[in-house]
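Good day; I would like, with your permission, to put a structural problem before you. What I wish to show you is a protein chain and, alongside it, a tokenised description of its three-dimensional fold. I would ask you to consider whether the tokens describe a fold that such a sequence might reasonably adopt. You will find the record immediately after this paragraph:
***
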Amino acid sequence: MGAKDSFRILVGKLIKFALLIAVLYGIGWCYFNWEYVRERFGAKYEIERYGVVWSTNLNTAKRLAEKHDRKIMVVYLHSNAKNETCDYLIDRVFTTSQFRQAVDTYIPVLADVREGDAEESVRAKTNRDEIVNAYDLRNQYGQLLLLDREGKEIGRVRYAKEPSYELLNKLAGGKFEPLPPISKPDVKDPFTESKEKAKNLTKSVSGPKEDAPKVEERYGITTGL
């Protein structure tokens, strides 16, 4: 076997080793960042509108509600038409601190009818129609629905130009109790996480050190007591 053949074989092995390391790193990255991956996958069903990041897919909202033990708040609008109720909601409710607390407390879902909106995708229309049909909304714009984490309706109210806190109290069926925002998953480094796990395992196995035996000296003689 010539020197060129040996070099070619060595290069081939190095490439395979590098590919193996890359694959293992990718698997490790997905393992430690699975929640982040799911969060980013669900982001395709999100839309930022009126200063709020909404979910537009009911199944994604139910998954988030199940994971974080939250309720779902559905808002049904017809925003690009002359609808007084919807206009008041957008201009006088969505901008208030009370409504922003509701957005943090619940999983916010937007079903927004925007006829003639060329930028609206077929997927967005399908998701909206699913919500409208599931809760028989039809032309009843300006409604807010409260659902449990399985999607079962537990409250419904139509905005009647009342203050935000009154609207949210009606929706909650009592006094609205705000909750802290849901924390977003961070990206983790597999190598760092593995080191931390190994360190924690070593600590738990070794356990606390026992106290050294007392040594007492009497009359110049060590007793070992």
About this structure: The chain has a mean pLDDT of 81. Helices lie at 3-32, 34-42, 58-68, 84-93, 97-105, 122-134, 164-172, 190-206.
